[in-house]
From TrEMBL:
Residue ranges constituting the VOC domain according to the UniProt record: 11-132
Database matches in InterPro entries: Glyas_Bleomycin-R_OHBP_Dase, Glyas_Fos-R_dOase_dom, GlyoxalaseI/FosfomycinResist, VOC_core
Source domain of life: Bacteria
SUPFAM superfamilies per the UniProt record, alphabetical: Glyoxalase/Bleomycin resistance protein/Dihydroxybiphenyl dioxygenase (SSF54593)
Protein name as catalogued: VOC family protein
Amino acid sequence: MAQKEKKQTAVLNHIAVYVADLQKATDFYHGIFDLEIIPEPFKDGRHTWFTLGPAGQLHLIQGAKASTVHDKNEHLCFSVPSIETFIKKLNSKNINFEDWGGTAKGITNRADGIKQVYFKDPDGHWLEVNDDK
């Protein structure tokens, strides 16, 4: 029997997030997620690049005109080893979070046992953090 050759699939390279205040957004993502800043080629003061390890990169781009209302269904998701420890970090930084339904300080417990919280970055982009193993 002939073996089927596996097709090469596309892989994620980066996610770009348009922000109004680059320094504020950079401080937020670095401070909340401990992301490592990596060199960016433009060197124009309008970009911050973070590594996301094997998942790719997160690019923050200065230039958004105003805060926009974003739907929670459109969000970035990060996994952490302990949702409880992460919630303590959010509380220490006075960052409001909620469950999927919008209950303040709530935690969503998915049917598969994964715990999730949702909150917004300084530009109103929704973020999910879960303890997916």
